[in-house]
Amino acid sequence: MKQDITYALRGLRKTPAFTAVAVATLALGIGANTAIFSVINSVILRPLAFPDPDRLVFLWSSSTSLTSEPLTPARLVDFRDQWTSVSAIAGISHIPLNLTGSGEPERLDGSSVSSSFFDILGVRPVLGDPFHGGRADDRAVVLSYGLWTRRFGADPSIIGRQITLNGSARTVVAVMPQQFNWPAITAMPGTAPGPQLWVPGASHDIPRTPIDRPDQDLSVNRTAGYVRAVARLKDGVTLEQAQREAEMVASRIGRAHPETDAAHGAILAPIRSQFYGPMQRTLLILVGVVALVLAIACANVASLLLGRATTRRKEIAIRRALGATRSRVVRQLLIESLALATAGGACGLVLAWWAQSSLIALGPPELLRIENAHIDVAVFAFTALLTAATGMIFGLVPSLQIATDHVTEDLQDGGTRSSAGPRSTRTREALVTLQLAVALMLLIGSILLLRSFSALVHVDTGIDTHNLLTFNMFLSGPRAAYQAQQAAFYEQALARIRSLPDVVGAGAAVTLPIGGDDFSAPYSIDGRERPPAGHEPSAGFQVVTPGYFAAMGIPIISGRDFTTGDVRGALPVVLINRTLAAREWHGRDPIGDRLRVGDEPWMTIVGVVADIRHRGPSAPPRPEFYQPTTQRSFPFMAFVVRTRHDAAAAVPFIRSELMQLDPTQPISDVATMEQHIDRVLSRPRFMSTLVAVFGMLALVLSIVGVYGVMAYSVTQRTREIAIRIALGARGGTVLAMILSKTAWLTGIGVAIGVSGSLALSRVLSGLLFDVRPTDVSTFILAATLLVAAAMAAGAIPAIRATRIDGVEALKR
Question: What is the pTM of this model?
């Protein structure tokens, strides 16, 4: 073995050009796989920071309109009392919390949870003791590790200290460990950060709402669906058993409360699926893509080895004739392949390490823990196994073919100067055809994803994003005590913002479109029969200030906008969008008609506004209605400010004005609307960019393979070409002869690649927007690009063939 390794290394050192090309090819293939595996290892394979995470499940309600939706507080209580498959269940509610009294006021993303939350997860804090089921101090707070280190300097004496949140004092009881990554389980998890602190629920251990009224008994509320629920299965209970019992409990609840719960079922989701489900398909597709890139690299190196082995066939035949067994020869050749693979794997590790910062920067926010991706022991072991497998794969075929039993034939064939044997030629041509087919499949996929992403970027969202700034405010303390005070503060804040010289418009809404939270509500229309409970039509629900539509660039199609005269006690008014008007009024004028939510007062329609894509660029406009903040207010609002020039430049002036109005009310999540939408598009950008990069890499590798095969073919046929030239063949004839071979191989590769792309079209169907996976123009474009590149690669050795000196070639 030592002798074989020494001989292999000496042989590779003597052929530096061959070694460099082979190692670089393998480094690209192995490096791409290593980089993607490092992400998968960090995001999915690395154990979650909870004991027995496979026993943790999320519980959702199901209805006819939505696959899964949060629970109502009363429904959480019902499951807590009746669901015996779990040892405990905890509710979660995302609430904003203003931290004041120590340094700069700051808005933090927090969670109100049932007291059993940390017991269910089983995570121990680094400091203190979190609240437990049945015994939680109503004024306690648990800090995340990041908040503790960033805001409080990792002070170990933080336990027992009081901090002011939303104007009330709370006592810090624990700090969670750094690896405790708990995401925001929201409608748009990719745009919402995880909580930075946790507070216990209100009475009856129900998670609080952002509008926290101490006198409100949430445990009987069956209409406000805002509670996310996590539970731990009892030992011995399977997910299927728990699902069946949850459906039975949901059925009992529906029979007991038919007016609110009859149409709701129950859905369980394992915690891994809940955290990583939306990204698993994307990562699996990327695994397939880089595996195909590695296959092309292996085929390329196998072709190079076949070409190199041609010059050694006589050597191998002599070894066999002198008594070397076939297995002995195969072992020697495989060791040479493994030596190449080892060098390629080492360089691939370096490439993967170099590419990780770009992958982390490109990764979408919902890829939890991607920032922790690095070359660790698991990644190193994966690369080592991949390197060994790669060396065996690309080295086995040439080794078996060369170490043939036909010793006499190899001695005769290997001694000729014009040919290296038909078997080697056919194998190399088959390999390059396979490379072209795989490259075409990746090219088609990358072009489809790039066209889809381009369509998403250029889709008309219904919003004029130019020079539009966004930020959030959450009112706390006396400002949030009553809705009238909230509305008055918003009016004062907007008046100050509008007074700034560069501002041309400003407004606010309870949720920011495209990536914000998603509110909807059932409605009924005056004069029409009301549907039975649970079957009412539903529409998106927004509360906005006067001037919001003008600031957003959303035109009023008919009627009027809200005004400051639409106050409490005046006629309740509402605006609807074009889609809702078309669905319910079918071209008739809805102005003056009335609708209402549940049993709330009737609201008169005073205007119709244009549609926007509230759920994102890929989602069509939905029916929506709007209420004014002057009649229905919330303590949290998303502000939008339109400026004449750069919107970001106005931030210091806006912050200064609001600080003068009330220094205890901070702003957060400051971004331009372009940046906001850019975050929403991070996942398709991640996918399309990586597939495009790997597609181009596959194209380059396959073209290198075409060049190698055709250059080798010209070398093989040098004597034949020389004879043709000596007999009077023109350069054009020789050129056509060589290019026809290139065209034949490329044509077969294109046919196989198109067939494979059609077969795999369903894989990309769920990732595309406004383009079909079988789009003819994409297939034609990709095939044309591949054919042009392949013919250009084949033309180089073909032109060289036309310049062969026939006399000199025949003398050799």
Answer: 0.83
